[in-house]
Task: inverse folding
């Protein structure tokens, strides 16, 4: 296996000497040389990586280093425009800006992830800019091999679910005679994965008729991954020497398609353009540039970011995503180069949200996310009938675990979102379903400590808020006794033993 490495660093005394010599010219380098190199790199990137196949990587611009899962020729993936299958790629690392060597490493990956083969050629685009390293966490022998879809037709009206189980949320329904394309089977062979509106869904095999042999489709579960769908990353830390040459990992999914990824061990669902970067002090940041990102129970909208802490080895995200906050002026300036990425490599152009738009969103949140207040309207007011819109269950105690939420609908809404808050008003979980459903199942076992919680339901029209219900405040019911040992997220590595009362266990570890 061949591994190429960066040039060795210069001794400290030489670095100091060079800095003294270059200090007087730093303003000129920033204003002239740096933007010129960045523009040249982006122009060549669009040519070098045009028409990149799915599940492939492209060497975009000097300098890109890589390691592979098998022995390769010395010249393999060594020059701009070179390409590699993702199954061959173990790590890819791009170089930070170096004006003297005219380096600013860029690489492009097209990752299929869980996008069904019913969307030919569609993929998630990863763009590594500057000092970025990505490690493939999917072994070649474990990588899911997607199959050509088989057309199926519903024999009766049927529900589409978020998972291969009757216990999974209903995300939609289709009438009798609907034709769908299936590209995978559940592990028990009783459910089919199909493309439904904004992403993959599951339909029972009992309610369809197929045009081909469904047993030829691959059996997959929630852990099935295509190459690079699970990955570890890191980026350079600190302010770049040139603001137009940041070190960022940019991830963009197809327009309107929800995609599941695993980044540093954390599950992330995107319907958007997001950016990852390392912050130092054991933290990483996720910024949403367009659309939204779902991180466990938390939904992060456009123009906002969250942070997470890494394990001691700096590799795996531990604990919850925290510090939900709007993008700052400095962060938007750091991201500005993304608007110049070649459009032929993207599903849609990147347009950064403005400070004014982010402030409007903050104002809207303050008006519509207040727990216990009356119903309120949003940007899509008037497009849905909210006259009878209200939560109906639960109205007493908040159950612990899988909980079904019910509400009276708002005709005209295309989807609904249930938000849960703790007693401080902090958002702890968010769940979604498509209309005309007026109920959904959400897991309330990982909301963290506290006795009092509240929930509200939001009616949306094509992703825009039409109205938000009044909040319902409830005391949380006690957790059930345990049948087996269980990890308690809110308590770090604390484990509650079998037979121990979950409530007392939480008290013991400081979870309540």
Result:
């Amino acid at each position: 296996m061949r591994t190429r490495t960066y040039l060795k660093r210069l001794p400290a005394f030489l670095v100091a000497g060079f800095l003294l010599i270059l200090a007087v010219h730093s303003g000129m380098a920033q204003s002239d040389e740096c933007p010129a190199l960045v523009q040249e790199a982006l122009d060549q990137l669009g040519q070098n990586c045009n028409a990149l196949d799915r599940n492939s990587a492209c060497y975009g611009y000097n300098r890109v280093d890589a390691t592979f899962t098998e022995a390769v020729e010395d010249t393999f993936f060594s020059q701009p425009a070179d390409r590699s299958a993702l199954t061959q790629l173990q790590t890819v690392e791009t170089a930070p800006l170096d004006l003297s060597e005219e380096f600013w490493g860029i690489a492009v990956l097209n990752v299929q992830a869980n996008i069904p083969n019913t969307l030919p050629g569609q993929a998630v685009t990863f763009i590594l800019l500057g000092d970025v390293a990505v490690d493939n966490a999917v072994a070649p022998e474990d990588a899911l091999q997607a199959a050509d879809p088989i057309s199926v037709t519903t024999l009766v009206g049927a529900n589409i679910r978020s998972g291969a189980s009757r216990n999974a949320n209903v995300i939609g329904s289709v009438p009798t005679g609907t034709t769908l394309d299936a590209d995978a089977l559940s592990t028990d062979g009783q459910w089919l994965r199909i493309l439904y509106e904004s992403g993959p869904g599951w339909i029972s095999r009992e309610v369809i008729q197929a045009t081909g042999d469904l047993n030829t489709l691959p059996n997959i579960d929630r852990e099935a991954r295509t190459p690079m769908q699970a990955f570890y990353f890191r980026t350079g830390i600190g302010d770049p020497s040139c603001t137009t040459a940041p070190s960022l990992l940019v991830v963009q999914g197809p327009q309107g398609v929800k995609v599941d990824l695993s980044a540093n061990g954390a599950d992330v669902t995107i319907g958007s353009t997001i950016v990852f970067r390392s912050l130092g002090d054991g933290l990483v940041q996720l910024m949403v540039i367009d659309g939204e990102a779902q991180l466990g129970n938390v939904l992060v909208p456009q123009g906002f970011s969250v942070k997470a802490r890494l394990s001691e080895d700096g590799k795996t995200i531990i604990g919850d995503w925290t510090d939900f906050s709007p993008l700052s002026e400095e962060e938007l300036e750091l991201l500005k180069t993304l608007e110049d990425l070649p459009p032929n490599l993207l599903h849609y152009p990147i347009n950064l949200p403005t400070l004014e738009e982010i402030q409007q969103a903050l104002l809207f949140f303050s008006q519509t996310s207040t727990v216990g207040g009356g119903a309120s309207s949003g940007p899509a007011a008037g497009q849905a009938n909210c006259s009878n819109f209200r939560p109906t269950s639960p109205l007493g105690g908040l159950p612990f675990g899988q909980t079904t939420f019910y509400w009276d609908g708002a005709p005209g809404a295309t989807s609904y979102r249930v938000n849960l808050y703790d007693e401080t008003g902090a958002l702890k979980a968010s769940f979604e379903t498509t209309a005309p459903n007026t109920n959904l199942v959400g897991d309330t076992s990982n909301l963290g400590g506290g006795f009092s919680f509240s929930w509200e339901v939001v009616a949306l029209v094509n992703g825009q808020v039409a109205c938000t219900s009044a909040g319902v405040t409830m005391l949380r019911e006690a957790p059930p006794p345990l049948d087996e040992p269980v990890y308690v997220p809110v308590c770090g590595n604390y484990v509650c033993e079998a037979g121990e009362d979950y409530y007392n266990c939480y008290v013991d570890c400081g979870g309540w």
Q: What stands out?
A: The mean pLDDT is 82. The CA atoms of residues 157 and 437 lie 14 Å apart. The first helix runs from residue 12 to 23. The chain is about 10% helix and 40% strand.
